[in-house]
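R.M. (postdoc): so does anyone remember the format we settled on? I'll just put the structure tokens first.
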């Protein structure tokens, strides 16, 4: 692509990245964890973590502009194919808890769509609900195996609708006290209302913040399509950071207007998004209009995300796989190019993660919160490979060149890369500690699952090459 064909400007980069990274759930989930103290946390996480992370991604994308595998390509070029396989496996494995929770999100969204309430699931046991989730998942495995192009298009439209409504919520909620005279739910705000207590409980919530701002590696391929990437890409990333900061800060304050930060509803993570739009409609005298529109859009977006996430991460792992690491039977595809045995492996792992927790967690809200927290522990593990690749590039700066560089000084680059790697690992480790009363049977059950899940998923990736060596030779 010639320089005259590089059409993307800094504002294009900022908007594309914003849509890929940000979502309303980021506001709700972190407010549920920290209340209005999350405002200070947002400032710190964006300045000390998110901005360096996004700019590192820019340099890696520019350095390996011919690579099509994203993080896997970066690792392959810097650390070799063995480590690249582990990076690709991690990218797929971290989606297993994500897939296990999507059916829950669909059921909740459907409940709000048809009844205008989040109490529909309360009349059923967690095991019955999780069995229903398993049926939904199996249905979408079948749908994904038949091709999901139309579902992707529906999901894109629904996703944009959810995104626009999330921004509309922030605008209308922040201005509601002035426009409608509604009282602010969080009273007696002082400086201490916004300053976190940096204790053990606080550190267990860091993984949700990292989970919220992660995913910037999705924009790496666009670095080289940017007009003057040395200047405009970092400008776009800084604008992205400002946009995320504004939405995080105003969104959190808007939540404080609706929900008392000193008395946060126990089911805010599960139902908070719907409560927010229901209350917003009541503020402006239009009943459940906002709620229904959001619930329908979110239902379709969740459905599309489920089908897409069954298919896409698996293809990233298998379609360009090296048979030294993946058993040949796992690579088998049908006439539609669907890796059928890969689908079976995904189904078995997700099925276990859907059913087993329901045997020990008997409250649906607790189960939902636990699985969301597990996602915040497991999903950021893939970001570690981004920082590992950046550190490797800094160590071999004489070998790799790029049109855009985050920092010129290699030692400073190593320091920043190391900081982001350490912080991500620390956040994931602390996130493993459950948010229920310590040392109770529930606590032991949850922490066992929190530790076992990533170990099993990543451990399976470690033993798969040995299985491949035995079975492929036969």
């Amino acid at each position: 692509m010639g320089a005259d064909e590089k059409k993307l400007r800094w504002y294009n980069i900022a908007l594309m990245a914003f849509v890929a990274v940000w979502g309303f759930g980021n506001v709700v989930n972190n407010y549920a964890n920290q209340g209005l103290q999350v405002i200070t946390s947002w400032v710190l996480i964006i300045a000390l973590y998110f901005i360096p992370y996004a700019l590192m991604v820019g340099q890696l994308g520019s350095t390996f502009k011919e690579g099509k595998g994203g993080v896997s390509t970066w690792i392959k070029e810097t650390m070799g194919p063995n480590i690249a396989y582990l990076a690709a496996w991690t990218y797929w494995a971290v989606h297993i808890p994500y897939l296990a929770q999507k059916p829950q999100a669909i059921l909740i969204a459907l409940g709000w769509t048809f009844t205008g309430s989040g109490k529909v699931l309360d009349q059923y046991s967690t095991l019955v609900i999780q069995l229903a989730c398993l049926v939904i998942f199996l249905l979408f495995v079948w749908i994904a195996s038949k091709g999901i192009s139309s579902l992707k298009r529906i999901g894109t439209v629904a996703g944009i609708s959810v995104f626009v409504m999330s921004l509309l919520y922030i605008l209308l909620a922040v201005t509601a006290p002035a426009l409608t005279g509604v009282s602010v739910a969080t009273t007696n705000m002082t400086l201490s209302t916004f300053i976190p207590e940096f204790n053990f409980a606080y550190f267990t919530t860091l993984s949700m913040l990292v989970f919220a701002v992660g995913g910037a590696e999705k924009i790496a391929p666009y670095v080289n399509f940017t007009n003057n990437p040395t200047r405009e890409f970092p400008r776009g990333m800084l604008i992205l950071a400002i946009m995320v900061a504004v939405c995080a800060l105003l969104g959190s304050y808007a939540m404080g207007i609706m929900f008392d930060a000193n008395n946060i509803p126990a089911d805010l993570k599960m139902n908070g998004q719907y409560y927010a739009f229901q209350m917003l409609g009541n503020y402006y005298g239009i009943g459940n209009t906002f709620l229904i529109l959001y619930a329908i859009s979110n239902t379709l977006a969740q459905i599309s995300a489920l089908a897409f996430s069954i298919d896409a991460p698996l293809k990233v792992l298998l379609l360009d796989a090296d048979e030294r690491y993946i058993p040949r039977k796992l690579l088998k595809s049908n006439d539609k190019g669907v890796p059928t045995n890969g689908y079976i492996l995904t189904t078995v792992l997700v099925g276990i993660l859907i059913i087993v927790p329901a045997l020990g967690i008997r409250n649906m809200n607790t189960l939902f919160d636990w699985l969301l927290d597990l996602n915040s522990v497991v999903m950021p593990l893939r970001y570690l490979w981004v920082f590992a690749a950046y550190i490797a590039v800094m160590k071999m700066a004489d070998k790799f060149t790029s049109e855009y560089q985050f920092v010129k000084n290699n030692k400073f680059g190593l320091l920043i890369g190391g900081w982001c790697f350490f912080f991500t690992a620390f956040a994931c480790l602390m996130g493993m500690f459950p948010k229920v009363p310590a040392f109770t049977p529930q606590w032991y059950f949850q922490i066992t699952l929190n530790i076992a899940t990533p170990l099993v998923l990543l451990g399976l990736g470690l033993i798969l090459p040995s299985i491949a060596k035995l079975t492929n030779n036969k």
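R.M.: ...and that's the designed sequence above, right after the tokens. Also worth knowing: The domain at 10-472 is CATH 1.20.1740.10 (Amino acid/polyamine transporter I). The chain has a mean pLDDT of 90.
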